[in-house]
Amino acid sequence: MNSRSRRRFLIRIMEASAAALLTGCDRLSQSTAFVRVLGSAESANERLHRLLAEQGASAPVYSEADISLAFPVNGTAHPDHSAYRALAENGFSDWRLDVVGLVRRPAQYSLTALKQLDAGTQITRFDCVEGWSAIAKWRGVPLHSVLDLVQPLPEARYAVFHCADQMAGSNDRYYESLDLEMATHPQTLLAYELNDEALSIGHGAPLRLRVEKQLGYKSAKYLMKIELVSSLAGIGGGRGGYWEDRGYEWYAGI
Amino acid sequence: MGLFNPRPKKGVPTYRHEWPVRLSHWVNAAVVVILLASGLQIFNAHPALYWGEVSAPAARLLSVEAVRVGGTFAGRTTLFASTIDTTGVLGASVNSAGVIRPRAFPNWLTLPSGQALALGRRWHFFFAWVFAANGCLFGIHALRSGHLLHDLLAVSQGRPMAAAVRPKYSVFQRLSYSLIIFGIGPLLVLTGLAMSPGMNAAWPWLTEWFDGRQSARTLHFAGAVALAIFAMLHVLMVAVGGLFRNLHAMLTGWYYPAK
To answer: What ipTM, to 2 d.p.?
Structure first.
């Protein structure tokens, strides 16, 4: 072998070792134990954010001029569910938000009742796990105001959000969950308006969650019920959300 | 030859790489391959880049799309205003069943190979920690040993730990190694952090530095491309300069020059 063909041969070997590394990693991805090891970064990321952020730090807010021209509709665009369709045809006048579980005073709220509570307005950036971002103005009730009314019991650790939409190609309804620290953050909103207009069906009418310090999939649309629980086990796939049950991080701050 | 790989005295073996350098070099080689491939998996979920805070179509710099052509798909890559056909590699490529499907980066360049954003993120965020930790260990060693001042920046003549016979890097090597280690590496870590909504609440100024979240995403991608180009040139240069001798030196520390 002359030096040129030897060189070409060796570069081939390097290419092949990179390809072999990726093939090996591809195989490892199929091992649940290994994926659990990879998932240990999730709590490290959450801990890093807690370490670096001041207590109760807020997501950046923007001005009216920054609002995106178009706010994309993602996930379910129109829940295909007869009970939801009936609510929508009535302009959501029969819709009620149930707040149940580990609370002293379980309650039901109509949209009118929620609008009578002090409203919060914020212009914030929405970051989708896919990679895109858009800025919009949200108006709604801070979740902590509703929690103050129902009074969570001391053993309540999480708020679980049950939604009306069934995801395409699945039998499961969308759901999400937050710990009480995130649930009572002043920017965590039960939003009924987007850019000064009533929430459209595409964006989650009549009520959706806004979680400003985490990715968009935490901000569940089509809210029907908020349940306070002490553990996420036994709800859905047990990992705290529709996408979490499909491998996405429960702590979606990254 | 001297510009790229200064030749030491003939026949005299030299001790070139201390163990922390060798260890961090090989850890980095594997981690960079994993981060690049899982990064492309993440990019594929929204295969476009923008400048500014949001992904406004008017601020789009790059997009990789698939278009329907007859009964199959063709790949179209648009950089600024010019579009080129990239069928087979970007935009549309063969899947594991051998059929052309819409896909920004092809299966053989992503981790996992098929479309799997959640798993790609798990790989990326785990090995991002390894990359950062490895970089810190290398940095501490480079500072303490004199590797940084003597070999990389060439501002000091003496080496406290190693013998003076150690060959110094060429200008080309010093520039490219320093740019990658102190420029591109930290840029990748910081732009990565700037994309995280949790970090945005903790350090809002970081995203502002990069002129917005989507700009940070674009710079993260550009930095990764620069790192990939460096890695390929590096392997080529090592091969040109004597692959066996260089590999031996990076594995054992000792460089045996040609007879």
So the answer is: 0.93
